[in-house]
Amino acid sequence: MRRMRGTPREGWQRTVESQGLVFGTPARDGAGDSRNYWDESVFYEFDMDEVLAIEAQVEVLHSMCLKAVENVILTERYADFGIPEWAWGPIEESWKRQDPHVYGRFDLRYDGRRPAKLLEYNADTPTSLLEAAVVQWYWFRDTAPDKRSWDEGGYDQWNSLHESLVARWGEIRNVIPPSELHFTWSGADATGEDHITTGYLQETAAEAGFDTVGLPIEDIGWDHDLKTFVDLEDAPIHSVFKLYPWEWILEDDFGKRVVESIPATTWVEPLWKTILSNKTILAVLWEMYPDHPNLLPAFIDDPGFLTEYVKKPKLGREGANLTIVDSGRETATGGVYGAEGYVYQMFDPLPEFDGYRPVIGAWVVGDEAAGIGIRETSGLITDDGAAFIPHRITPKGTTAS
Amino acid sequence: MQPPVPENRPTGYIPGPEENYFPPVTGLPPQVNLPDTVEPPRRPGRIREQDENTTARPESVAEARARQRAQRQRAEDEEREAAEAAAAAAKKSRRRKQMIGAGVGVGVVGAIALLYVAIPDNDGARNVNTQTAYCTVDGDQVVSDDYCSRGTYNPVTGFILLNGMSYRYNYGGSYNNGRISGGSYDRPANTAFRTSTGGAVDPAKTTSFGSNGQTNAASKPAPPAAGSSNKGSSGKGTGSGSGNSGNTNAGSNSGSSGKNIDRGGLGTGSKGGSSKGGSGSSGS
To answer: How far apart are CA A103 and CA A373, in angstroms?
Structure first.
């Protein structure tokens, strides 16, 4: 793994904008100046051995996570996750019924030398999907110096996100009602990131044969007479993909109705993912698989034996409310999360390349690894000031070290 | 009883086995003295030769079974290895990305993205001028922006469907006496547009498309007039930070149409950390 300098394509801003990348708070560079969220003046290179290693580790992590969900449900540890008691039974039923899941993103610490370490799992509402699936793919196609296939000596990119999503929707078509599939996002997100991410997923589902309807979640109605959720045409919603966290749904006015509507209404991602999207899972994984090479020690509500650690809110997002305690020094980010408690994870600083620190977002579609997207910060915390950096795989027989 | 200690031992004397005798201990099994190993009488080995007339000896039943088992196992192993190789090859080909299908998201997603392209002030550096977009029907007839913001937008055809009618924005045309002339129905790049009332151009929030790229919204009953005036009336993504479509329907109720539908009970916890907005929902 190495960081390379590239020459941005002529008119790249217009290109990525036409591909849908219009959102994203401007990132920040080392001096605190603003930086483009999409930055193709640099990129990362991996060799195929590294890609194959990460791929295998991601699939191991995913299967460990599923075992951890099973464990939490069997031992009824919901209270550790801050999940309201009325939702416990429906979560268990959702798991036992194997309500279908589509995708998730592991955030990994990886430097090309040591095994990847799981920092967290965005299993419920992961974004940065469009830039990983589409925008960086076109960047690769436009800039690869050797257009031959990897087998014949050219470059490659670890990226099967689009095909994997289409294939996954195809599988899901077999297990949910043959009706229109609704897609919903929070209209309160003024940047458009949620709407565009949902629109992209909507398109992959349509490619798989679904008829789809998109609408903001605020516009989903409850029909008191027919006891069903309805769209803006007052037509019943039988299945819906939501880019909106379960923990917020459970708090919303219609939260109980949503939970009661399952399984007559299929909600994707499924309710059982509320366990995986909670950072308490990091501590459960460490309990179940102590000293696993892809895990960092993590504990609930207490740092345990850790002297250098990151304190993460169980339900935090985008690097908010993190505190890093390192050699007695504390670094913290602001935010509104943490009322539900914290998880303490051993501090393993992100590796540094040219003064920047990448985190690998490794995608899982269905149950298989499907590619990566890299976000890079100048600081130790990958927050909404991170920039997205594309990557490629070096030709056969070469290394990226 | 101690073993007898012989006298006058020479230097380097090593005691023989008879001197390692220890009396039996009560409660333990008796010690057994094994006889010294005796060389058996040596018998010369047999010498045979096999030639082309040699035939296989009959196989024992156990050998035949073991052979069958091994052969079956080898066949299974080969089968499994072939399956694993095929799976690995399939995975490799998935990694070696070949976009399938004609569109790769950019068409529809790009259309949605246009909703969020920041519209700067007139002196903004991003775009040099701001023009007006008019909501139109039947080619050139200008109607209220409300129709364009309330209907169902099909990003593929570019039309906005509402109550069986197709609306679309005209970008940059000249308005005269209720009609539009000139301009474009495709949104030109690098130009900012606002509606005639100064709002963001927002061709409906509801997007609808299927695998064949055609809208399917028209096949469903049109939305009722009652309550719909609350729908999608706000602009968003105006670049000034003020646009926010959240909760526009909070508490809306299609009561006057005979239906009893509440909206706004979801999404009340808005992203970005603002506290739970008042939904006004009567549903809970």
So the answer is: 14
Compute the 3-state secondary structure of chain B and give helix, strand, coil in percent, each to the nearest 5: 20, 15, 60
Q: Which helix (H) or strand (E) holds A170?
A: helix A161-173
**Distance from B173 to chain A by nearest Cα, in Å?**
23
Closest residue in chain A to residue B119, using alpha carbons only = A22
The tokens for B101 are: 């299908």
Which residue on chain A is closest to B113 by alpha carbon?
A: A20
CB contact under 8 A, A163 and B100: yes
CA neighbours within 13 Å on the CB side: how many for A18? 11
- Is the whole model's pTM more than 0.80, yes or no? no
Number of Cα atoms under 13 Å in the Cβ half of residue B178:
2
Q: Which residue blocks in B23-181 are alpha helix, DSSP H?
A: 61-95, 106-114, 145-150
Calculate how close chain B gets to A59, using CA atoms only, in Å: 13
Rounded to the nearest angstrom, the gap between the alpha carbon of residue A123 and the centroid of all alpha carbons in its chain is: 6
The alpha carbon of residue B77 is apart from the nearest alpha carbon of chain A, in Å, by 23
Q: How many CA atoms are closer than 13 Å to the CA of A22, on its beta-carbon side?
A: 27
Estimate the crossing angle of helix B106-114 against helix A193-207, to 10 degrees: 150
Asked if B103 and B110 count as a contact pair (C-beta separation under 8 A), the reply is no
CA A245 to chain centre: 12
What token pair was written down for B231?
Answer: 């729908």
CA dist., res. A311 & res. A357, Å (int) = 19
ipTM here: 0.82
Closest CA to A363 of A186, A127, A173: A127
Instruction: Kindly determine whether residue A195 and residue B208, on different chains, have CB atoms separated by under 8 Å.
Output: no
A286 torsion bin: left (phi>0), alpha (psi -120 to 50), beta (else): alpha
Q: Do A252 and B110 touch (CB under 8 A)?
A: no
Question: CB distance A137–B97 less than 8 Å?
Answer: yes
Contact A244, A185 (CB under 8 A): yes
At residue B49, what are phi and psi to the nearest 5 degrees?
-130, 145
B175: left (phi over 0), alpha (psi -120 to 50) or beta: beta
CB contact under 8 A, A217 and B108: no
Judge whether A51 and A393 are in contact, CB under 8 Å.
yes
Give the whole-angstrom CA distance, residue A331 versus residue A309: 11
Q: What is the pLDDT along chain A (401 residues), one digit of tens a residue?
A: 999 999 999 999 888 888 888 865 566 676 767 788 999 999 999 999 999 999 999 999 999 999 999 999 999 999 999 999 999 999 999 999 999 999 999 999 999 999 999 999 999 999 899 999 999 999 998 998 988 888 888 999 999 999 999 999 999 999 988 778 999 998 887 778 888 899 999 989 988 889 999 899 988 999 988 889 999 888 899 999 999 999 999 989 899 999 999 999 999 999 999 999 999 999 999 999 999 999 999 999 989 899 999 999 888 776 677 888 888 788 777 776 777 789 999 999 999 999 999 999 999 999 999 999 999 988 777 666 789 999 999 998 898 87
* Residue B104 to residue A137, Cβ atoms within 8 A: yes
Q: Contact B195/B131 with Cβ under 8 angstroms?
A: no
**Residues of A with Cβ-Cβ distance to B224 under 8 angstroms:** 234
Min Cα–Cα distance to chain A from B140, Å: 27
CB-based contact B113 A162, cutoff 8 Å: no
- Cα(A371)–Cα(A364) distance, integer angstroms: 8
B262 chain-A contacts, CB cut-off 8 A: 221-222, 224
Sign of CA dihedral A173, A178, A180, A182: negative
Give which of A120, A157, A192 is closest to A383, Cα–Cα: A120
